[in-house]
Amino acid sequence: MQLRLINPNTTAGMTATIGEAATRIAAPGTRIIATQPDAGPVSIESHFDEAVAAVGVQEEVLAGEREGTDAYIIACFGDPGLLAARELTRAPVIGIAEAAFHMASLISTRFSVVTTLGRTAIIAEHLLAQYGFAHHCRRVRAAEIPVLDLEEDGDAALVRIIDEGRRARDEDGIGAIVLGCGGMADLTEEITEAVGLPVVEGVTAAVKLAEALVGLGLGTSKHGDLAFPRPKAFTGRFEHFSGLMPRQ
Ligand code: 2AL
Q1: Half-sphere exposure of residue 77, counting CA atoms within 13 Å on the CB side?
Q2: 240 C-alpha to center of ligand 1: Å?
Q3: Separation of 7 CA from ligand 1 center, angstroms?
Q4: Strands across the sheet containing 2-6
Q5: Tell me: the pLDDT tens digits for 110-157?
Q6: Which of 11, 78, 88, 189 sits most deeply, having the most CB atoms within 10 A of its CB?
Q7: Total-model pTM
Q8: CB–CB of 121/185 below 8 Å?
């Protein structure tokens, strides 16, 4: 099984971190291909960053379709471009936020999210509402660390995430914590140990969900709104999307 793990930001170090965490958790028969868009924001921490990154995600799915990909993961906690990506393929496409919410709801009645910057909490809150998990989540908390600090100042970032995780444990009345950034993929063990609650991390959760779907023979439905987009002309720098023909 070939799993294309798309880091929607363009920081190669973060793509490597995410790829290594996914490879460690993957089943022996799963081949992880960690990729990132050629162009776009180095980190995603605003609505604007997300909108730009979402196009790069589609390019990565189209590249994956040329290589016979069995499943895709969008490894940014805003799940940028998720439904659009599903339109482009019959393979399953899983966002790390939705993967983490699903997994957390299976092991706890209530969870809190610990994300990076407070200004991006609204992105997770919108997704919780959209996916139907708002009642399962007590609070979206922020450790107030810029995304790239996870790569560049990892030790200080870890301390802040653990502090916020402990506050969530003590104040929120929860059973589990969800980590709210792809760049936290390698921190699960340390945070679990320090906080003492189950910690659900989206990249690893998504790998296991992707393996389950492929094992069940389930892919993205092409019936209804997730059908391939109608071929049409695209102009200017999106001309290469013109007459897009899906893999059959
Ligand atoms: C993210 C993420 O997962 N990757 C990134 O660049 N920005 N989202 C977040 N809430 O930190």
Answers
A1: 33
A2: 28
A3: 9
A4: 31-35, 2-6, 71-74, 93-95
A5: 999 999 999 999 999 999 999 999 999 999 999 999 999 999 989 999
A6: 78
A7: 0.97
A8: no
